Amino acid sequence: xxxxxxxxxxxxxxxxxxxxxxxxxxxxxxxxxxxxxxxxxxxxxxxxxxxxxxxxxxxxxxxxxxxxxxxxxxxxxxxxxxxxxxxxxxxxxxxxxxxxxxxxxxxxxxxxxxxxxxxxxxxxxxxxxxxxxxxxxxxxxxxxxxxxxxxxxxxxxxxxxxxxxxxxxxxxxxxxxxxxxxxxxxxxxxxxxxxxxxxxxxxxxxxxxxxxxxxxxxxxxxxxxxxxxxxxxxxxxxxxxxxxxxxxxxxxxxxxxxxxxxx
Length: 263
Fold this sequence. Notes:
The chain is α/β, with parallel strands linked by helices.
């Protein structure tokens, strides 16, 4: 039996493929726990500089497996409580990982799949793919950090509209609304995601890690505290090989060569 999550690594880039194609890559506890475990390992692997998440078959991820919820054996509430706990661990690993994470949205991203895509740092969406929050259509409320990230991407009014009416969002609208980074032709999502990570690999990875942490933390930090965090991480970056190389390259009027001594 195939694993519900596949992992490949090549030249410092890890490709995670959600692998329940017959169920549109919807996740049960086993699948999402495996995803979280893989993300933990990748975050700690010094050879990995970036991560791509995509789906097998026609979907990116259709969210939580409602058949699993139905068959859980207790109340639906208990099933959602356990599933969300594991799912949220995976979301936190994405947000806390000091490396870029790109969602290659190859098909439908609905429910938890929608929230997971939003949690990634960048989203490459294939032209025929669709986004749907899906929760409210099924009488539920949004999890996976969707209620935190969505209004910060599209604004309060548009976020509430998406939550209320749950209309499918095509790639054209997703790009116009700022939900995705880029739209590519069908079948090119993973390739373009890898290209993006190859570009980031040539830049200062320590600067990315610091910037991601600062921007993520800024939503729950007072302004004065954020200034102090900025000072601390600026000082940290300055003491890293990339920081020293960047300053030297600027003063010597040459192009910097980053990440030579950071892994």
